[in-house]
Amino acid sequence: MSHLDKIDPQRTALLTIDLQNDFLHPEGAYGRAGQGAEAISALPARTKPLRDLLLAKGGTYISAQFTLVPGRGGEPLIASHLKQLRPFLAKGDFAPGGFGHSLVDELAPADYVIEKVAYSAFYQTRLEYVMRAAGIDVLIVGGIVTNGGVASTLRDAHLRNIETIMLTDGCAAFRDDVHDATLLSLGTVTHQMSCGEALKMVETS
Fold it and tell me: Where along the chain do its domains lie?
């Protein structure tokens, strides 16, 4: 897409996808299972300056957080494909209100928390309602994983004619080549810029 030079910070939200303890904290579900990546661990610190500046300019911070809905007896309702991919997921993981479900401390608190049960932050959630009610026109999107929740959210926003900016170094995947391929595939769907470039844009808007 063509480059975006200016935004109205007060009508813009930073939306992070799945930056929560069960994914990033050593004591979270993925940490206990030895699942992680250096690129993913670096995201909160890289995203924080942009979040802080956008909030100072009157913008909004929204955290979309993957959720496993507890079923009868507390056992999580897990889709069959996810159970096959991540057999280590267990009772209490990604449960609303729990430590693992919560946004990482470095970025907390968010103005709005969106519980999501699938890849996209729009699928069966209140995100679009919150955006409309808060007067948000533009989403700056980062988080994990680039080829999963981030890509699905950006494509859903595109279908809804919502302007988006994808943070090229503010999202990550478990493999760098998958991350890079996803950036290429989303080039016609969203504006793309680094966290540093987005920071400069917010500063001058």
Answer: 9-204
